[in-house]
Amino acid sequence: MLKVGFLGGGRMAHALAKGFISAGLTKGENIIASCHPDDVALADAFKGIGSTVTFKNTEVARGSEVIIVSTKPSVVPTVLTEAHSDISTRNLIISVAMGVTIKQLESLLPKGSRVVRAMPNTPALVKEGASVFVCGSSATKEDAGLTKKLFEAVGVCEQVPEYLLDAVTGLSGSGPAYIYVLIEALADGAVRMGIPRDLAYRLAAQTVVGAGQMVLQTKQHPGILKDNVTSPAGSTAAALYHLEKSNFRSAVIGAVEAATNKSKEISKSMEN
What we know:
8-stranded mixed beta sheet; alpha/beta; elongated; 8 strands
């Protein structure tokens, strides 16, 4: 069974660990995670799936085949410096830290390290994640295959060129937050029209799930699916007209652009 270590034992790390176990890729006892001493709840979450918890990054590196860097971007240099002497070419290093480039990762690791940069999102918690990854200069085809298999355990996963990573961060990385705002707004509108709030949230959330599945399963263009719902002079047409007047599309496009630019800023700050 695969031995997996997490440098940083946050919610995303825990979600990934549970997915790997569920897919039969590893067992709880083959996982080790380094947690901050103050993060009692997160440490308990890993212990709850039978994993080892440590406060030393060196222990994670020493006992793992696959090392997943799952800390905040600003902490990555410190964490990898601490674990440096225990990392070798036997390890596959997968970083899910936003904005930290392959070049930056490789500069912090021993020469020849097998590095993969990945960008999952929080729906991985319910095995509905959308992840992408890019391989470093020393990563092999086998490493790419293993990475894809690991992240497909918590959703869908695609290999992409690195220049797309910032835009992916703006789309699927930050995207769940946009959808939560949409669900909240749909429910608020429904409550204003007389629907009880609990029912409004359930209907709004299921509507988002259903619309997404329609796009994925029918493989039809979203515009065609939208037209199929929109009768001439009907209620949907009136609603869409209001959204267009309110610059709905422009606001969403701007949100993706803003998040993408922020990711680029973080990458530049890491270089300094």
